[in-house]
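Give me the fold.
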Amino acid sequence: MPTDTPQPAFVLIRPQMGENIGAAARAMWNFGLDRMRVTAPRDGWPNERAVAMASGAGRLLDEALIYDSTAEAVGDCTYVYATTARGRDLTKPILTPEAAMADAAARIASGQKVAVLFGPERAGLENEDIVLANATITVPVNPEFASLNLGQCVLLTAYEWRRATQEAVAARTEMAGTEWANGQEVEALARHYEERLDDAGFFFPDHKADSMKLNLRNLWSRMPLTRADAQMLHGILRQMVRWKERG
């Protein structure tokens, strides 16, 4: 059974290759979408190649709704977006995938039923399909090579849906069981290296020693050290000193 998460239906209009249907299913499920509709697939249904390509997302194909026409596929929807890379001489709002999926999220939250149309691989949606849509989605691609593979277009749109509905941390660091080193720990590491390097005669000539020590302290403060890093660097230096003394 499909999940109960409110979401748009992704409608594949007259898809030609089973592999692309499977890729679309996989792309949808990557981002938590599982309402697939398919109209008039060229190679019939079910399609073994679609199943093979879908991999772990085969459930979407099992539960896909099959229609004979675009009108039937969106007949229960209150708002429809049509993806297209070409101007169609039709007066329609034109949105980027980002804006469209943000708009779709708001409409679905208000109780509307939304669908997104994706055209066949050869030439995309026909005007007869697009006139059934309330708005179009156009990706700002290279105008000299605007064609997107069906699976790619579904992936891009599904990603924007996820961004519009799921908060994601833009950047984070996996601490792997440790914590950031605090100021005292960094200071202890800096002092340890300074003392041992001083013993080794590293700070030479004398008139440059203070500047060299200052630069070394600045190096430690610039490094985002964890406690594990500091312990390891202490250990490296201790072992080098022991090795030198044994020699």
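The chain has two domains: 9-165, 183-246.
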